[in-house]
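Thymidylate synthase, Anaerococcus porci. Tokens?
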Amino acid sequence: MNVNDKYIKIAKDILNNGYDEESLNEDVRPVWENGENAYTLYLPQQFVRYEKGEVPLTSLRKIAWKSAIKEILWIYQDRSNDVDLLKEKYKVNYWDSWKNEKGNLGKAYGYQINKEFKSPETGKITNQIDRLISELKNNPLNRRLIINLIDVDDMSEMTLIPCAFLTMWTVTGGYLNLTLIQRSGDFLAAAAPGGINAFQYYVLLRMISQVTGYKAGDFVHFIQNYHIYKKHIPSIKKIINIKPDSRNNPKLLINEDIKEFKDFSIDDFKLEDYYPDQTKYDIDIAL
Ligand SMILES: Nc1nc(=O)c2c([nH]1)NC[C@@H]1CN(c3ccc(C(=O)N[C@@H](CCC(=O)O)C(=O)O)cc3)CN21
Ligand SMILES: O=c1ccn([C@H]2C[C@H](O)[C@@H](COP(=O)(O)O)O2)c(=O)[nH]1
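Tokens:
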């Protein structure tokens, strides 16, 4: 099954078999801009496997792939929670609704990457990304290689509790394999197979592989609550009936001269053979 097939299969599964929040007569947290409840159809515990060499980018609709990479650079390289930085440095606006009065996300996302702690392996003061890179180079059989964006001590000071919050990393011979755990996934806006979340974490896998001397291996994306907002249903129904351009076979090229994680910039990433459907969808984002 290619990425588009995976997209269509899970979309149909949620549409046909998803639990309908509205009919459960319980409160839901998210609202639309006008204050109305944002109900979903949802399925629990879905996962998507992308074999090595497969780029998780759908061509059923246009994905903001550069913004997706910029978000990763902002979180893992700038180690920032500052929404104004995302806007000024990267021209990405879509986190604006979640910033606090100081213009940041509180103790979420990049804050957890910048936080220092004592490495359990070396005893030296480090941060989660530096420890991961150093252990992959020096101690590849380490089974404790995770990056966690949720620290329960800080949860009440996060403006949004990270959705794609946990990565786990395992070396097999010359390959680095990644699992991403996502607690909650908005199918249309971000979490679909080949959408922003899958693609951006695949890019992180490629980047970390490149600077630690491995090839990118398999990528598994697990979503605990996978949902389609009911307002998005008409768009999803259109998308799953698109016949994509048969030339699609996306390849991601990354500047091979980059050897240090801190040196990647957005201009080091190029996509080839990507011809996404150009239909425009006006996507409301639940707040
Ligand atoms: N309900 C909800 N869904 C999300 O996916 C989400 C949140 N909230 N809150 C935090 C971030 C913000 N995210 C967003 C916000 C907006 C778009 C969006 O407007 N996407 C459009 C245009 C993207 C562009 O061209 O820049 C799209 O067509 O996908 C996507 C993800 C992802 N996250
Ligand atoms: O990277 C992201 C960030 C956010 N989301 C979605 C998932 C949910 O629809 C909302 C968050 O609402 P919660 O009630 O906190 O789950 O944002 C995503 O899919 N991907």
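Residues 64, 67, 94-95, 98, 160, 186, 189-190, 281, 283, 285-286 surround 5,10-methenyl-6,7,8-trihydrofolic acid (ligand 1) (CB under 6 Å).
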